[in-house]
């Protein structure tokens, strides 16, 4: 074998080693990616709980996410004071989504709204429903109030909310006025908020959304801040950089979130509606006034305005039939 042939042979061997190394690295990378995706899917799948129901009692037929207009009840649950047992729903929001228009409506229900709790048959604050019967009782109470079917639900505890915001790198909100609010930590810290745009981490975002006593609009002002936070989170979730944080987000979600939405539904949503952001969300308001009854502070909704709100939601859901709860 001459020198020229030996050089060619050594060159081929080097190329083989390079390709072999690349092949091994690709195999390891694909294996790790597959393992990570499997772990992520497993973590996210642990959030699923269909409550043993195929549809709302106010639906004649079941609806399909991303095919039909649907409603989603979002419950922000304060459960650390009860050791993880049924706490109270500190935040109640109803979202409707129409897949044809790719538009969402978002309604925040004041937690002190005076309604009948089906489980007790008494008029109480709506956030008591979760303490009495968890998500099932809360769903029924909200359905009775708004006279619309609740197709899907999501419960998120405070720890999950803070962690999600932190994993997203924080959010930007527009603070309406200067105020202070204690953090929800066991050793509370006074957090300061200043009028104008502010970058908030998870702990600050929770305090911003929860503050009520210093707001001249009371529950109404609080609800507006909550909707602002949800819109900011949606914008972050829809950003391209979130793709690289799916694993971390899935870990947070798996431990602290429960829903009857499938993992595949969420993936399909962001694949189909890549440009969806807060500008596609119309915010709605339940009109009413604060009032003391027997020494207890309630939010008393305006019945005429409630009927208008019910019609608005029904039209978005293509649900124009009167429910049995209204007929009785």
TrEMBL record:
Residues in Cell envelope-related transcriptional attenuator domain copies: 88-238
Keywords: Membrane, Signal-anchor, Transmembrane, Transmembrane helix
Entry annotated with the keyword Membrane: yes
Pfam families assigned: LytR_cpsA_psr
GO biological process, one term: cell wall organization
Entry similarity comment: Belongs to the LytR/CpsA/Psr (LCP) family.
PANTHER family, per the entry: POLYISOPRENYL-TEICHOIC ACID--PEPTIDOGLYCAN TEICHOIC ACID TRANSFERASE TAGU (PTHR33392), POLYISOPRENYL-TEICHOIC ACID--PEPTIDOGLYCAN TEICHOIC ACID TRANSFERASE TAGV (PTHR33392:SF10)
Name under which the protein is recorded: LytR family transcriptional regulator
Organism of this sequence: Bacillus salacetis
